[in-house]
Amino acid sequence: MKVGVCVARKLPNNHIKARRFAAGPSLRCFVVVSRYATTKKQLRYGPLCGALNGMSMDDHDIIKSLELELVNVATRKNKDRLGELLSDDFEEFGSSGKVYSKRDILNILPSSKSVIYELNDFRFINLSGDCILAKYKANTSGIGSYRTSIWVKNVNGWKMLHHQSTVRQSAI
C-alpha cells in the first residue's frame, strides 16, 4: 500500500470533506470522513482511509486505517497524536519480550529510528459492540511478525488498549 497526503477541509461538527487527488491509476486516495480527524495536523499525519463517493467506513476499515497511521513515521514522531491513539491503560507485549506502557511508548517512539512497515492480511474479530481484535502480518527490514491489537471505542473514538508482536518463523 502506498501512502501519500490528501487534501481535505474541516466542516461543522468535526466532519471532514475529502477530495481525491491524482496519484496514478492504481492508487485511490481519500481521508477520514468522521470525527476521528479533527485538525489539519491530524489530517496531515493521518492515514489514507475513509469514505469515497459518500460511502461510510465500517469499524474494521477505521481500525485498519488507525493501525496504518500508527506505523506512519510522522505519527510515530508526534507524541500528541500517539497519545490520542493509545488508551491510558495501553500495554504492549513487544517481540523482544519487553512489556511497554503508554508512557513508555510516548517516551521511546518519538526519538526512535525511523522504520518502514509493510502491513497485510488484516483480519478482525468483534469482541463486543465497542471492542475489536485486529490481527495482521507485518514486515520491517526483512523481519516478519504476527501482530494483534485490541481497540476499544469511547466518546473520543477508537483507542488501542493492547498490542502484541511475535516474530514469524521463516517458511520451511
Automatic annotation (TrEMBL):
Stretch forming the signal peptide: none
Superkingdom assignment: Bacteria
DUF4440 domain span: 63-160
Pfam families the record matches: DUF4440
Coiled-coil positions: none
Protein name: DUF4440 domain-containing protein
Highest classification ranks of the organism: Bacteria, Pseudomonadati, Pseudomonadota, Gammaproteobacteria, Cellvibrionales
